[in-house]
Amino acid sequence: MSAHANPSPRTAPALRAVIRAIGLIGLGGIAIAVGLADVIARAPVDAIGVGPSLAPPSQAFPFGTDLLGRDMFSETLHALAITLGDAIVGALVAVALGGIFGFVAARLPWRIGDGLRVVAGILAAVPALLLAILFVGLTARGFAPVAAGLAAAPFAFARAFDRARLLGASHYAQYARASGIRSATLLRRDLAYEVRDNFLSTVTRALAAVAITLATLSFFGFGAVPPARDLGLLIASARAGFLDAWWTAACPAFTLMLLILCARLAAGLDEGERP
Amino acid sequence: MSERILSISDLTITRAGLPRPELENVSLTLDAGETLLLLGESGSGIPSLMRAVMGAGQSGERVSGQIQFAQSTPGVKVRHGESALRIAYLPDAHSEVLSPHASVLSQLVRILARKLDLPRATASEELRLTLARLEGAPPLDAFRAGTVEAMALSWGFLALAIAQTPDLIVADHPLPDSSPIGSRKFTAALVAEQKRLGFALLYSARRTLVTTWLEGRIAILRNGRIVEEGTVGRLSSAQAHAYTQQLYKSLPMVTPQVPLPRRGSRGEPVLQVRGLELSPPQKNVYRARETVTFDLRRGASLAWLGEENSGRNELLRMVLGQQEPAGGRVIFDSVDVGILSQAMTARLRRRVVFIAGDDNVLDPRMNVRDTVEEPLRAHLNLSRDLVAGHCEAALKRVGLASLAPERAVAALSRFDKRRLQVARAIVTVPLLAVIDEPQRGLGPLESAVMLDLLRELRAQEGPAFLLLTANFALALALADEAMVFKDRSIVERGPVGEMLKAPKDDYTKALIAAITPVLPSGLPKAQSQG
Amino acid sequence: MWRFALWQVGHFVLALVGAGLLAAAVSAFAITNATQGMAAFSRAFASRAAAFGTGHFGYSAIVAQSSSDLVLKGLAPTLTLILWGALIALIVGAPLGIVFGRGPARRALAPLIQIVAATPVFCVGLGLIWLAVHYAHWPASAHGDAGAALGLLPAILQRNGGAIASGFRLLLVPALIVGASGAASLQLSLRRAAAEAGDAPYRQGLKLMGLSTLEIERVYVAPQVIAGVLSNAGEIVLALISAAAIAEWVFDWPGDAVLFVKSVALRDWNVAALVLLLFAVIKLIADLAGALAARALAEPERDA
């Protein structure tokens, strides 16, 4: 779960609550837009010749069109759905294998946890992006959401592990053990409070980090498998002509930024997740 | 007529969001060479008053009224730089006023050098000479480490203040509760230096006992107002206000008529310690290791008397299994703890409870209800209604029934946390209660309530008590027998009552002297139970 | 301090061995039949681990060169990017962290920082390219040759105007991308450390005891903040490496980061493994140096 070796720069609680609410509303809005993508979008996925080639943004085509006359607004909306879905999968993998497993591993007997912590530390010595590329390379492009989650997991594991150790060595935990409270009860207690206090911010932070990694993977050609295009692949395919038709890259990029921003705001300005 | 050093008139401090002012129309004066003691409990407003005097108001505080130092312009906000007075601050040793990332010595020297405008080498020498002059103070080298124990730190602060040859010392309850002998020597040194240098002393005290060691005037504050004011001598003998009377009742007054606690050696042993070895006080000094052996029977009470680093806490850690002993055995409820698995040890310890003055027994994230109910839910298979009933009854007994059950422990006051520990202990119906400085940091009345609660716990649930304290009066009130720890060895053991009547070791005598109030005549009072 | 240093060095060596084993595991995929069952992979892993132990990192499956030769060739361009990026990060990130680290500025500008931090590095890269091409008519690609950029530092030392201009045009935008990412990481570390030090009770305590605010900040707070940043050096280096991978990809920069990406795409596992090891070693060295420097700066006994 969320565990800072150093505390994050934190804002006042009231402002933090407002910012968190804005982020959650934003994420909710994005989720609704994605759910209604087929209704909102004027063209189905990858529909060629919907408009003229490389038309700049206009009332008819708010995000313009690309070289093949595809409506960029519709394409961006469909790509956002893929990015969001993949990012949720990746974030859940990162939180489950990183946060929760890291927390539990810290309390495993016979120093199993210490061994896992060393492995996590070694994996965390490699940039998450390169680790995700490696995982995809060793498996397949369809594995990218899980690979992005796995790549974010070592760092989250290390943080959750250290946090759990800190809590386990606290005075109140020692006193509780000395008065017969079992380690399993203490672990349950710690997990319950961590979930209550930090789960939402941990998941949304992971969502932001994994969305960045996934988009970058696709930009490198390791992510979404065509014909399905996520936001990263949409931007990558615009790379050849974006110097003349800026909207083909800028509109998906701003949409991606909006998703990441909402996720970060929903985390209540807690910073520090490694993209 | 003496020079007026400090004059406070109609000082009112309000804070946004609070129903009543923290301080209301307080007026005080302090002359050169005089001592003004401020005594009150939490909510008295004394911390706000001290902050205002030191010019360190917090954000959200609104201050009105006048604080005037000698030779300074009248004004509400007074900064030290604006006054020609030399003001020295004597802080609480527990308040983390120094950086933990630099040695205590370097910080003390830097402050002295800055205040006196001296080179640091000269300031260091000045500090060394002052420490050498203060009877009972540790030498300069004791401050070289990053962390220094609380009493030593208090001495360091005192030396720093004295070395400044101040006109006024503002002492913000500078004595740690855990060191009564050191505290007694400290106040004696402070009084002696005041006589020598003639500085005015504004002293905020948490315990009534300390006020009897100092001479001067005393102001009793309650809910932000002064309820009574007079000389220490007058208030020690006759108090006009009911609240003041209560405060003075909390003194460890001792009368021979009160029957001494009976010697407890009833029932089967609940805790047996056989030859546990205490480590020597200094690593490089060879000394035969002290071994500890004792039995604590069901319903009996044993006090481990001693100050910080006396060895009592190390012994406790070994008894609790938090520290591996070099040798010896711990037998709990007739079972050798050393040969049991972790799960079995946990099962055995279900009926051990802790009540500690540091309040770190409680998980700050938990709420009031969960804190009390946890032992019941963890150890017993009771219905939800029954658990809630036990919880409610326990909270009622300790006076916390009105507390919202969902309130987080972190948001509770020190006194409430302490009582919550007792409530948790009540529902456990313990065989053994380990009680570590239960009155630490509490005000006089709160301490008295705590003592009553512990007595009631012992009377009703009947656990064996293992009491760790430096306060002889507390041992007298709660324990049958005592072991006196000094420098990681036991210097005396026996029934507490007999120890009080005829202490054998000088250290025990000093512990007894440290809880003895001083009468206006300067003679110690007769000793009795607190 | 010595005990701490020994502990850290021990930790470093252990992590180094672990990184070597990880690289050996990746390299094992280069051996034919390694993926046919656990036993086959174990044999391949053991053989590659033994080879790594003796300094033999294998050959590329794509070009007829040893992995180490290929990686050494790309090392200078990557390090050039990282070092110039680090310089930019320091120049930009440190003031940002100091300004936004405390008080009202932090509260007011925290959401703004979030917006900036929400921008993926490759989007920043594309944006900078667009600006450079449209407003400065600078090249959008190194076309696989970073020679002029590598010669920038010698050109500055020799005051060779032409070489400085061509090197600058080639290096500035990629270095800015790396620097922006490093600056974001640095300012975050700085703000974290400043927030922690800012809440410390001793700041008020020492002031009451008679020290000036400036002296407290200079003597006690600043070393803590710098130590906090130093202890986070590994994370900053990781941010720089990640950004270097993107900058190299976008600008066709012939460095090791892009070599890794291409190696993985082409299943050239020996090369990918060695690049992975190289980056892990750089990060671990940064961790070790940062931890030792932080300890030296913040040790309680340093001025006893």
Helical stretch tally of chain B: 17
Q: What is the terminal separation of chain C in angstroms?
A: 13 Å
Structural class of chain B: alpha/beta
Query: Quick one: biggest sheet of chain B?
Result: 6 strands, mixed
Spatial strand arrangement across the major sheet of chain B: 5-6-7-3-8-9
Task: Give Rg of chain C in angstroms.
Answer: 23 Å
Radius of gyration of chain B: 24 Å
Give start-end ranges of low-pLDDT stretches of chain B: 73-81, 255-261, 522-530
Uncertain runs of chain C: none
**Overall morphology of chain B:** globular
Approximate shape of chain C: globular
The amount of beta strand of chain C, in percent, is: under 5%
Tell me which protein chains meet in the greatest interface and how many residues each side has: A-C, 53 and 61 residues
Q: What is the percent of helical residues of chain C?
A: over 70%
> What oligomeric state do these chains adopt?
heterotrimer
Mean pLDDT of chain B: 82
Number of strands of chain C: 0
Characterization of this structure:
Helix content of chain A is 67%, strand content 0%. Chain A has helices at 13-35, 37-40, 72-105, 112-123, 128-138, 144-168, 171-178, 183-220, 231-238, 247-266. Helix content of chain B is 35%, strand content 23%. Chain B has a 6-stranded mixed beta sheet with strand order 5-6-7-3-8-9, with helices on both faces. A 6-stranded mixed beta sheet of chain B has the order 15-16-17-12-18-19. A 4-stranded antiparallel beta sheet of chain B has the order 11-10-13-14, covered by helices on one side. In chain B, a hairpin with a 2-residue loop joins strand 13 and strand 14 (335-336). In chain B, helix 2 (104-116) crosses helix 3 and helix 11 packs parallel to helix 13 (414-428). The model of chain B is unreliable at 73-81, 255-261 and 522-530 (pLDDT under 50). Chain C has 304 residues and is an all-alpha fold. Chain C is built from 13 helices and no strands. The two termini of chain C are 13 Å apart. Classes of the chains: A mainly alpha (275), B alpha/beta (530), C mainly alpha (304).
In short:
Chain B has 530 residues and is an alpha/beta fold. Chain B has helices at residues 46-53, 104-116, 120-133, 150-163, 180-197, 208-213, 232-237, 242-249, 312-320, 342-348, 368-379, 384-397, 414-428, 444-461, 472-478, 496-501, 506-513; strands at 4-15, 23-31, 35-39, 61-69, 87-90, 168-172, 200-205, 217-222, 225-231, 269-278, 290-297, 301-305, 329-332, 335-336, 352-356, 432-436, 464-469, 481-486, 489-495.
